[in-house]
Please model this.
Amino acid sequence: MRRALCPGSFDPVTNGHLDIIDRAANLYDEVVVAIFVNQSKSSLFEVDERREMLAEVTAGYPNVTIDTFEGLVVDYCRVHDIPVIVKGLRAVSDFDYELQMAQMNRGLAGVDTLFMPTNPEYSFLASSLVKEIAKWGGDVALLVPPIVLKRLTERTSSAG
Ligand code: PNS
Model:
């Protein structure tokens, strides 16, 4: 059984994340998408909301499950017996930090990282930009799945 982990904040999940999850689900028998619970970082969506959105948009993948974790990603991998982390690389600017984390994670626990080049269509895409654009009423319909768009619109219009 080949298992992989797709970790992230997913605040909220974007089409770029989904592209990576889709490709990971084609490569591995089982893919766990794990939301990192970071108490020190403010988020637009609660962890439960992020989890609901991820569950809805991955409902068509029988080999994808959603979970949350707090602490080190390698500890999650160890407990759940997952040998590899899958990460999307959007541009060279992602590489420095991602390489550092990948090397650290391998050194800490022997967990490998597989880098996937992001679909060029999404190379500029980030949850932070989506939130910023939605907050000011910009159109993000092509950047996130429809159910995320609905929640974003509700959340940003209720924020006043
Ligand atoms: O979507 P993000 O915020 O870019 O995801 C980053 C994430 C959550 C994958 C990364 O920060 C992470 O793995 N955090 C868990 C804590 C950890 O293990 N830190 C040490 C990494 S060497």
User: Anything to note?
Assistant: Strands lie at 3-8, 30-36, 64-69, 84-89, 112-117.
